[in-house]
Amino acid sequence: MMGRSVQEVARPQAVARVGRVLGELLKQTLTFIRRKPLGGVGLIVVLLIVAMAVVPGVFATHDPLDADFDAVLKGPRSVHWLGTDNLGRDMYSRIVWGSRVAIIVSFGAIAVGTTIGLVAGVVSGYFGRWVDVAMQRLIEIMLAFPALILALALMAVFGAGLDKVVIALTVVYAPRTARVMRGATLQVKAMMYVDAARAIGASHARIMFRHLLPNVMASYLIVASTLLGAAILTEASLSFLGLGVPPPAPSWGQMLSGNAQEIALTAPWTAIFPGLAIVVLVFAFNAVGDALRDVWDPKLRGR
Questions:
Q1: Which residues pair with 84 in a beta bridge?
Q2: In this structure, are residues 154 and 171 in contact, taking their beta carbons and an 8 Å threshold?
Q3: Contact 101, 232 (CB under 8 A)
Q4: Over the stretch 220-273, which tens digit does the pLDDT of each residue have?
Q5: CA–CA separation, 224 vs 293, rounded Å?
Q6: 3-class SS at 90?
Q7: Per CATH, is 38-296 categorized as 1.10.3720.10?
């Protein structure tokens, strides 16, 4: 009886706690949209495309792999909203299902790559000396290669595939994040409370995880949000060159390659709509990243 009464009391408290957290999150989101309307529009677009990627069957009107040879290269109409390709496949449905590849690659690669870069940058900036020199020389070697060239080289080694694209982009964007996080760590490391923590005998791990990491998270989130758009473009470029996700799985970059180049003049919708999808998502990520930078950067917060 006592156990049941405790559960009956704890359950409403847990529900109320979750409600307060969700309410605060909604309040902060609405404040963000009101302060940064362009960033709010970008956030709405990103959430919509993420929803399409999570449940594409709800948004799609046709099977993306279903070829209808009686409807080859038909323009936009009521049956096929964005027209069909050279095999009679519905362009709108293929764009919807292609959003899954874009979201998985961008969020997967950036989440892993920026996290590795965050740890590497904090370790490099905190310890300094030979650790910093060794890590920065390695990062400089990787940064010497343009992002697309390095991604192409890695894909040539790994082979085509969704998981291979994620690994390649992780390697590409980790050093770029590490360089930024090292600079942020050096700024925080010079603060008095870090010296105070070291003076009272705090360990290196405690200083890094309790004092440095929380104070560089704003910079980390800004870098991650801005790199999402770059990851989309790199993945589309790899798919366009035939080194991304192999067919017949729909991918926005792949929809722009091959026969799409040959029929672009006679059936322009086959190139316009996939390209427009890439532009819209990259713009949305950049808008959100710029808005987050303006909100969280103390130097820009007062403008």
A1: 90
A2: yes
A3: no
A4: 888 888 888 888 888 888 888 888 787 777 888 888 876 777 777 788 888 888
A5: 11
A6: strand
A7: yes
